């Protein structure tokens, strides 16, 4: 940190010599070698490149899941399936095996379960087949070598967090192991045009466990969401190199495994009772319109700080909407506990749910109910204005199909079915304060 001319050990002058550290020497030598070993890229004009032939896709028994995947499981693709423990990842993978193994060779590799456990599930789901094979291993080296043989069209690996490479000393599930095992498997899959599905664990926050680089490496990332104890479960692609990420598949679990829900709107509204605090929302799951019931409960608070609880709806968005209601409509809610529930275990990420939530809260607070023939959708701004909604025509078509007569929606939508609403205060006064 300062100029030194005299050695503090031997008291001699001008004996200090600069020396480059060994790792710095290695880095400089590696850069020099790389500069000499590199060669010019063989590039082409973009117009001269011929599009490759469309590869074969492996179809599952679920039409909606095929749509989420972009038409099916593409040969040579690496797909990452993530979800909470117990939500049904192993179940749907075995159901995929049951369909694909009718015509293709499939290998199911598990590092978590024994052969007997997998056999029981396969028997229960009717997946026993001459072309379905099983192996129990946690060695990424062995799995990659097996994929490189080219004997299998589809390989399922459960899960990436249990795998380890022999050349790395760290424990399975660490960043280095997950990254390198993923790279090894991807190279083997691409070299033999084998489709691979890898199961990934999630953290307690619901995000994919492990390094983010794993999501960048694979071709498709699929999230399995929902309540593992009941209700609907959804599968959506958050990354898809071969298709759209706007599609969603909706399932429910029964004794025969996971089954597609073809008409979720009718199933969600089958047990509905028209009481105060109950509003029907026309929402979207991906590009699919769905009618779902929003329930609100407003009760006097027994403590100084009122409680706000939401199930299936963002709690921060709920607090913002409550503030808008108090400020723009003069409805007093600061001494009330407010509970919001989205029926059926659905999780809403739709901004057009704002108006339905506001009307449900006002309906519960005023003890007034909305008519049975109304559906609601629209985004609420901080000024109390009601803004337009995405794909309004699909929402309206779904409401008409299920027999509803009117939609309370933004005034920008030009349709006789729609009752135009511009302001939150006027809408609540007109439709909630009247019996």
Task: Name its key features.
Ribosomal Protein S5, domain 2, Rossmann fold, globular, 2 domains, 9-stranded mixed sheet, 4-stranded mixed sheet, 435 residues, alpha/beta
Report on the structure:
Helix content is 29%, strand content 24%. With 435 residues, the chain is an alpha/beta fold. The chain has two domains: 57-262, 3-Layer(aba) Sandwich (Rossmann fold), CATH 3.40.50.300; 266-431, Ribosomal Protein S5, domain 2 (2-Layer Sandwich). The strands form five sheets. It has a nine-stranded mixed sheet. A hairpin with a 2-residue loop joins strand 12 and strand 13. The termini are far apart.
Care to give the gist of this entry?
This protein has 435 residues and is an alpha/beta fold.
Major sheet summary line: 9 strands, mixed
What portion of the residues fall into strands of 2 or more residues? 15-25%
- Report the count of strand segments: 20
Number of separate structural domains? 2
The percent of residues in helical segments reads: 25-40%
Low-confidence stretches: none
> What gross morphology would you assign?
globular
What is the spatial order of strands in the main beta sheet? 5-4-6-7-3-8-9-10-11
CATH topology of the largest domain: Rossmann fold
CATH superfamily of the largest domain: P-loop containing nucleotide triphosphate hydrolases
Number of helices: 12
CATH class of the largest domain: Alpha Beta
Q: What are the SSEs and their pairings?
A:
Blueprint: H1 22-37, E1 57-58, H2 63-68, E2 73-74, E3 78-83, H3 89-100, E4 106-110, H4 115-124, E5 132-136, H5 140-148, E6 154-158, H6 175-192, E7 195-200, H7 213-217, E8 220-226, E9 233-240, E10 248-254, E11 257-260, H8 264-269, E12 278-285, E13 288-300, E14 308-311, H9 315-329, E15 336-342, H10 354-366, E16 374-376, E17 379-380, E18 386-387, H11 392-401, E19 406-410, E20 418-421, H12 424-431
Parallel strand pairs: 3-7, 3-8, 4-5, 4-6, 6-7, 14-15, 16-19, 19-20
Antiparallel strand pairs: 1-2, 8-9, 9-10, 10-11, 12-13, 13-15, 17-18
